[in-house]
Specification:
With 304 residues, the chain is of the alpha/beta class. It has helices at residues 41-51, 66-77, 120-125, 127-132, 144-153, 172-175, 184-191, 198-210, 250-264, 270-284, 300-303, and strands at residues 4-8, 12-18, 33-39, 55-63, 81-88, 94-100, 106-111, 135-138, 157-161, 179-183, 215-219, 225-229, 235-237. The strands form two sheets. It has a nine-stranded mixed beta sheet with strand order 5-4-1-8-9-10-11-12-13, sandwiched between helices. A four-stranded mixed beta sheet has the order 3-2-6-7. Strand 6 and strand 7 form a beta hairpin. The two termini are 21 Å apart. 51% of the residues are buried.
Length: 304
């Protein structure tokens, strides 16, 4: 199997405000710090895999503004192949407004911008790279049609991160990926079930399997993750206890690590791969930011 990783998805500029706590509805509070970071689920997951040493290619859109130029330069600095990252005339780059509390909780509002223009045709142009990839990763910050097309082309392992979640969706989004990965909130949205305990999470995973998923990874924040494949028992993975500074990029660190480990350690048991991905995601929350918080190759010796 090829060890190359192709990520199809979004690029966002993150405008991040840090505050003692998250504001209540209609409330204005004083923040403590403001930073601008490179983000977006697609690019984050791609960079997370690249920083671990993965051979990564990103298929994405940025705007024809100053942020688009800066984003492509950032990706190149992270050793991500950018031949399929297009600047989009008359569109701004996507942005995310993020508030992070002192305990690491966050609220996020995204404006898609150029990400809305990522098309099935863009995926077609990258067809050969997708077909030959060991792992292909998608999310839902861009059109679901784009994710579906990429999964239809993929011959290796495909991972769909069902985020942001959809209450109404094409069943192919669940049926096509090798792994369907969601957090508790997203799992609840896709199933209509509450997901507030491990027991409820397991029930939601079974519901997703019954809807056509081949396998489900349900991330549980500081509690770790669970894995359920068709015709098998549920496996729970725990995370090491850490002091969370900023959890904004934890899910993307997890999926980037998952993609890297699957591409480069195909003979490892899934339980071992997921345990390492949990370890890497936990490490990322001990630093502020998204891509800048993702660990490099040195962490691999500590988690495998």
């Amino acid at each position: 199997m090829s060890d190359s990783i192709v990520v199809v998805g979004s690029c966002m500029i993150d405008f991040v405000s840090y505050a003692p706590r998250l504001p209540k509805k209609g409330e204005t509070i004083h923040g403590t710090k403001f930073v601008t970071n490179f983000g977006g689920k697609g690019a984050n997951q791609c960079v997370a895999a690249a920083k671990l040493g993965g051979k990564t290619t990103l298929i994405a859109r940025v705007g024809d503004d100053v942020w688009g130029e800066r984003y492509i330069a950032n990706l190149k600095d992270q050793n991500v192949e950018t031949k399929y990252v297009k600047k989009t005339p008359n569109f701004s780059s996507g942005i995310a407004q993020i508030t992070v509390s002192e305990i690491g909780d966050n609220q996020i509002v995204i404006v898609a911008g150029a990400n809305k223009e990522l098309s099935v045709e863009d995926v077609e142009l990258a067809k050969n790279d997708i077909i030959s990839a060991g792992v292909v990763v998608m999310q839902l910050e861009t059109s679901p049609k784009v994710a579906i097309k990429a999964m239809q082309l993929a011959k290796g392992i495909s991972i769909l991160n069902g985020a942001p979640a959809l209450r109404q969706y094409d069943p192919k989004l669940l049926q096509l990926p090798t792994i369907f990965c969601v957090n508790e909130t997203e799992a609840s949205e896709f199933t209509g079930l509450p997901v507030t305990t491990k027991q409820e999470a397991e029930a939601a995973a079974h519901a997703l399997i019954s809807k056509g998923c081949n396998s489900v990874v349900l991330t549980l924040g500081a509690e770790g993750a669970l894995y359920l494949a068709k015709n098998s028992n549920c496996i729970f993975l725990t995370c090491p206890a850490v002091q969370s500074v900023d959890s904004t990029g934890a899910g993307d660190a997890f999926i980037g690590a998952l993609a890297y480990l699957l591409a480069n350690n195909p003979n490892l048991p899934m339980e071992n791969i997921l345990r390492s991905a949990c370890f890497i995601a936990s490490d990322s929350v001990t630093r502020s930011g998204t891509q800048i918080s993702f660990p490099g190759q040195e962490i691999l010796s500590r988690c495998t």
